[in-house]
Specification:
By secondary structure, the chain is α/β, with parallel strands linked by helices. It has 16 helices and 21 strands. The structure holds adenosine-5'-diphosphate.
């Protein structure tokens, strides 16, 4: 059943194409789908075919202003609600998200080109998990008593910051939106999200699902482009906190604006994550781990992709060969097809950027490029943004492919001879998001884990973001943490001191 205000179906649907059309031309503000103030829209394209699947509302400063005012209006009542009650409502969202998870997975596969089986379903599951986790944390918004004087009661209380402006990218838009809005809401803030221009639909559908439980105006979503729609959100005077995930360059711009306004900012930026493999590792598990770590099933479009792999020399050749063989066997194809392991690159801009990196690597003297996986043969996919994964060896450490974030299915592998040298090489990067170590010698592993410059180090695994574990980088990879109780307290509340003179 649909109506003009809610043109999307009430029940879960398995038809992402119809859902995309129903979501066309809309923001979500004040508990309702609304068109852009200007009435303008922009196309949303299926990267597997090049076909337009929807039009998104083209937001600008006028839409942002409406959304922020709605969020500010809703925030007063929301903040007054007992924290555990807010948590309980956020927890209820999790059940709705679970009921719609297949629908969300299919829609995200359609608009981003991420394979349904290997990626999109996983993302939908994590989203529900994040709401469940933060929904249980309402009672943890505790303050402290402060020893000041026997006749003065001195306490701290956690208060929300107000309206949070959240800007998200296209690679895992549902998950990153959840990481921002679930803790922000539990802490008593309200939120305006600016979705990524390449993937505005699934997050928009989620707004309507959340609205079935949460009060109108608590969260709002505007779609549009960065400078025209993201920038006015950051600079809006009523926005009291900015949380951003995206590129380093944009992160610097966002951070500068927030600094001018003197509002706190959390930044999750890029990465060039090292994976260090010792000869004593469990070989088969580690080869499989390298494929997962490089996020090949997401076409490498991940900030934590293991795009620099260091392998101890005795197993180097065998490791490279085994990895190439496994990647080669992966099936590239229609993201909505259950057989597909690897879908498409998100956009033509990104496609060309990654191809330029590959061409540069192939033209480098001494480098070897192992191009893996067969291109799809289905004629319906000829205009799709499919790109074969490439494993490079023989590059030098000053290569752009080793220093810069590619954000595509391209990794670089190097041999190493001793732990100190590989540690220095791994740390020789402007980034510091994530790292992994693969060894059965936990003395060596833990010693290096302590000395790797990264926000997250994993030994003998390389999982994506998990609820309850702080996530966030050092150096140019960002500022602040997400995904944990500490992150919620630190980044979505401030501590107020209250003193009562009883003398
Ligand atoms: P990517 O290369 O992953 O698209 P960006 O940093 O360009 O990374 O984009 C991440 C998000 O930031 C997107 O939602 C984008 O629209 C937004 N964005 C881009 N430029 C700006 C800006 N100047 N101010 C605020 N947001 C922006």
């Amino acid at each position: 059943m649909t109506n003009a205000l809610h043109p999307t179906p009430a029940d879960p649907t398995r038809d992402p194409f119809a859902l995309a059309r129903a979501l066309s031309g809309l923001h979500f503000i004040g508990g309702r789908y609304v068109p852009a103030v200007s009435g303008q829209t922009f196309p949303v394209v299926n990267p597997a075919t090049g076909a337009e699947v929807a039009q998104a509302a083209l937001g600008d400063a006028a839409d942002i202003d409406v959304a922020v005012r709605e969020a500010a209006r809703a925030q007063k009542d929301w903040a007054r609600m007992p924290a555990r009650k807010r948590g309980a409502l956020v927890h209820q969202c999790s059940a709705i998200l679970k009921a719609h998870s297949e629908e969300l997975a299919r829609l995200i596969a359609l608009e981003t080109g991420k394979a349904l089986r290997t990626e999109s379903r996983v993302e939908a599951g994590v989203v529900a998990d994040i709401f469940e986790f933060f929904g249980g944390l309402g009672g943890e918004l505790k303050g402290e008593t402060v020893p000041f004087s026997p006749t003065v009661l001195s306490v701290t209380v956690r208060e929300p910051l107000g309206v949070v402006g959240a800007i998200i990218p296209w690679n895992v838009p549902m998950l990153l939106m959840a990481l921002k809005i679930a803790p922000a809401l539990v802490a008593g803030n309200t939120v305006v999200v600016k979705s990524a221009e390449e993937a505005p639909l699934t997050v928009l559908r989620i707004c309507e699902l959340l609205n079935r439980v949460l009060p109108a105006g608590c969260f709002n979503m505007v779609s549009g482009f960065g400078p025209e729609c993201g920038a006015p959100l950051v600079s809006h005077p009523l926005v009291r906190k900015v949380t951003f995930t995206g590129s380093v360059e944009t992160g610097r711009i966002v951070s500068a604006t927030a600094a001018q306004k003197l509002v706190p900012v959390t930044l999750e930026l890029g990465g060039k994550s090292p994976m260090i493999v010792f000869a004593d590792c469990d070989f088969e598990k580690t080869v499989a781990g390298a494929i997962t770590s490089m996020r090949f099933t997401r076409q490498g479009q991940s900030c934590t992709a293991a795009s620099r792999i260091y392998v101890e020399r005795p197993i180097f050749d065998r490791f490279v060969a085994a990895m190439a063989e496994r990647v080669d066997a992966m099936v590239m194809g229609d993201p909505l097809d259950e057989r597909t392991d690897i879908g498409t690159i998100i956009s033509t801009g990104q496609y060309e950027k990654v191809r330029a990196f590959v061409a540069e690597g192939q033209a480098t003297a001494g480098a070897t490029a192992r191009v893996c996986s067969a291109m799809p043969t289905d004629p319906a996919l000829t205009k799709g943004l499919f790109l074969q994964p490439v494993i490079f060896t023989g590059l030098t450490k000053d290569s752009r492919l080793v220093r810069e974030e590619i954000f595509g299915p391209v990794t670089t592998i190097f041999p190493f001879d001793d732990a100190e040298t590989v540690l220095a090489e791994a740390n020789d990067s402007e980034y510091g998001l994530a790292a992994s170590l693969w060894t059965n010698n936990l003395t060596v592993g833990l010693s290096l884990a302590h000395r790797l410059e990264a926000g997250l180090v994993q030994i003998n695994q390389n999982l994506v973001v998990q609820a309850n574990l702080s996530y966030g980088g050092v150096k140019s990879s960002g500022l602040g943490k997400e995904a944990s109780l500490e992150a919620m307290l630190e980044h979505f509340t401030h501590k107020k001191t209250i003193m009562v003179n009883m003398g």
